[in-house]
Amino acid sequence: MNSMEMNFIDTCKSKYKASKQLFEKKDAALFFTHFGELSSEIISDYTIKTEEYLIEIGAAKRTVKSIFNILIEGLQNIVNHGENSPKGGQLGYFNIGELKNHFILSFSNLINTSNLETIEKAIKRLNDADESGLKAIYLDTLSNGQISAKGGAGLGIITMAMKSKNNIIHQATPINNELSLLTIEVRIDKN
Amino acid sequence: MENLNIEETKSTPEVIGDAVNGTLKIKGNCFPENSLSFFDTVNNWIDSVPSDLPSFSLDCELNYIASSSVMHFFKIMQKIEDLFPVENIEIKWKYEIDDEDIQKLGEEFSKLTKSKVELIPLEV
Fold first, then answer.
1. Does A69 touch chain B (CB under 8 A)?
2. Which of A22, A38, A186, B11 is most buried, judging by how many CB atoms fall within 10 Å of its CB?
3. What is the domain count for chain B?
4. Which residues of B are less than 8 Å from A153 in CB distance?
């Protein structure tokens, strides 16, 4: 591995380490976390483990369903849209945990920095919409959307916004001349 | 003209298609890694069903469904409507009585399809 690849991965690891600090606060807990490549087996395992854990800690069924749905969308989004690192292979991470009043899911993956503006505009449109506005965007996308070569239809991020009922928080960090690490954080109220 | 039989996994539903009676039942979780490949099998089977069947019934009972699969379900409903007269189509959308997500999805489909979507709550 050359020094440029080392720096790249070190930067991503450093962002991953920083992302977990949120869960070191009082009344916070990190349930599950993962750094590196994802596969359908890892997605199935983590979604089922998360569901079991949330039921065990007494989360409401409605909350469990919302978190499970957001988790699937977030993880499939990383697999379907995450760019490869210069070393090859996808590089991303996710955290699932709680703060005092919220459950939190954060997802990070590499994207081409040139696509960032489009993604940011899409997130802003969702954050600016109220519940009925989100539903209208969802129905419009469902009835007019096309299935992409990767099997998606642009409904994933809308679904996350609808299930969360909170704004989607995002942050992008340039990693090299082409790629940025995009983090999306979704919160679900406990009550 | 063959029947369709796909076994359930953690992330994909059981799919049973009966080409003689014109029924397609889909039950379980639906978040396949490759939704295109999974639904291609189902779509190809629907294409093979004789269009002169007296009726066609789609019976869905889903637990978790990924957004990528939602679009495929809508396309399946549209495909059935292209192949059979609307009055001969029966769509049953079953959901656990306290599962608002799946219930709402059925309600959304009923707004977007020409055929009637019968929403059926199931006792947990």
1. yes
2. A186
3. 1
4. 67-68, 70-71
* Confidence (pLDDT) at A91: 87
CB contact, 8 Å: A76 with chain B?
Answer: yes
- The CA distance from A4 to the nearest CA of chain B, in Å, is 32
Q: How many residues appear in chain A?
A: 191
Question: Domain spans of chain A?
Answer: 3-112+168-189
| Structural domain for B14, as ranges | 4-122
Q: Which residues of B touch A72 (CB under 8 A)?
A: 31, 64, 66
CATH fold for the domain made of A3-112+168-189: Heat Shock Protein 90 (3.30.565)
B100 and A62 within 8 Å at the Cβ level: the answer is yes
Q: What are residue A152's phi and psi, to 5 degrees? A: -90, 170
Confidence of residue A135 (pLDDT cuts 50, 70, 90): very high
pTM above threshold 0.95: no
Strands of chain A (E only): list them: 29-36, 92-98, 102-112, 169-174, 179-189
Query: How far B103 CA sits from the closest chain A CA (Å)?
Result: 12
Residue A88 backbone zone (phi > 0: left; psi -120 to 50: alpha; other: beta): left
| CA-based nearest residue to A68, from A45, A50, A80 | A50
